[in-house]
Amino acid sequence: xxxxxxxRRSLWVVTTRPARGPGMQEVLPAxxxxxxxxxxxxxxxxAGPIFEEGDTVPTGGMIILRAEDEAEARRLADADPFHAxxxxxxxxxxxxxxxxAMTVTVRYSDQSAVIG
Length: 116
What we know:
Elements: E1 9-18, H1 24-40, E2 44-50, E3 60-65, H2 70-78, H3 81-84, E4 88-97, E5 104-107, E6 112-115
Antiparallel strand pairs: 1-3, 1-4, 2-3, 5-6
C-alpha cells in the first residue's frame, strides 16, 4: 500500500513561548549559537519564529529536532540557553513525517545552493 512506503520518520517539534521578557536580547546570541551547533551536528531539521495570523511580531518559536527518542529531544531542548535561563517555556511533540518534498539546487559555477 501507499502508506507502507511513506517516510514515517520521527522528528521532535519544540514549540516555545516567552516566559519572561527582560533578558531575551542578552541571551539571543547564545541561543543562536546553540541552534547553529545543533544544525552542524545534524540534530536541527529547522527552526524559526512563529507568527499568529496577521501579526508581524513573533509570538513564539518552533524547533524541529532529529533525536533518537523523547529523552534525547528533551535534553537538547533543555540545553537551549533560552530554556535554561527560564526565558522561554516549551512543549515537546513527536512528529511523524510522512509526506512532503524538498528541492535543492547546487550550482557548481559559483558554488551556491538554493533550497526551494
